[in-house]
Amino acid sequence: MEERKVVLVTGGSRGIGKEVAEVYADNGYDVAINYVSDKTDVEGIKKEFEGKGVKCLLVKGDVSKAEDVQNMVEEVISEFGKIDVLVNNAGITRDCLLMRMSEEDFDKVIEINLKGTYLVTKAVTKYMMKKRQGSIINLASVVGVVGNAGQANYSASKAGIIGFTKSVAKELASRNIRANAVAPGFIATDMTSVLKDEVKEHINSQIPLKRMGTAREVAEVIYFLGSDKSSYVTGQVINIDGGMVM
Question: Of the listed 118, 154, 223, 232, which one is catalytic?
Answer without folding.
Answer: 154
